[in-house]
Amino acid sequence: MSLGLKLVLLPLLVAQARATRRGAPVLPEADGPREGRVGDGAAALRLLIAGDSSAAGVGVAHQDQALAGHLTRELHRHTSAAVHWSLHARSGYTTRRVHELLREAPLVSVDVAMIVTGVNDVIEQVPAQRALRQRAALADWLLGDGLAEHVVFAPLPPLHRFSILPEPLRRVVGEDARRHDEAIACWAATQSRVTHVPVDVELDPSALAADGFHPGEPVYRCCGSAFAAHIATRVWPTLQEKRR
Length: 244
Prior knowledge:
It is built from eight helices and six strands; from the N terminus they run H-E-E-H-H-E-H-E-H-H-E-H-E-H. It has about 240 residues and is α/β, with parallel strands linked by helices. It has one domain: SGNH hydrolase (Rossmann fold, 3-Layer(aba) Sandwich). The protein has a six-stranded mixed beta sheet with strand order 1-3-2-4-5-6, sandwiched between helices. Strand 5 (about 150-155), helix 7 and strand 6 form a beta-alpha-beta unit. Helix 3 packs across helix 8 and helix 6 (about 130-145) runs parallel beside helix 7 (about 170-190). The radius of gyration is 18 Å and the shape is globular. The protein starts with a helix and ends with a helix.
């Protein structure tokens, strides 16, 4: 959609966004610990999970059902390493605010930082290239300050398939989300210590939370499995090699 048409539709888009927010239930972040260890093993894999509501587990009751639970269990299964993990996430946070959150947190060095941001950048109409610069700044800080050996970015969800969003709002935010995701994927492909993980996930109502927008456990399970497989096959072997 052209910028001109988007500007013409702006009053309608704002009205639709406000109506959608008013009509959707406000769901809490998942309960449960935000750090821990999964499994035993001769090797230890240190993992940081950071991001927005999807990282915080909005849509399920407990972190065991959320991304953190599924990702850490699958990582242990794939690698046989003890997974030491911590979670720093807040609902509604953009990439810039996640960066600020991490700067204020008592972080320890990890092997992998799993970053889940982007939807709120789209909602707040952060231009794709600016959002990309903010993701790059976050990755550069984590890698440059020795806080992570590798940074993995989650993909943006296919917002054009979210039936709770009315048209033309769904089409507009869907195109914006694709633009953001393509930008981060193309940039990550040029980096040696940053990767982006595409995930193909079903978004029928039974897979989503009660608000029809946030992930339900089936989505968290699918994403956790995909992220774990990526880290176990593309990232962890390289990090182990460096240790030898």
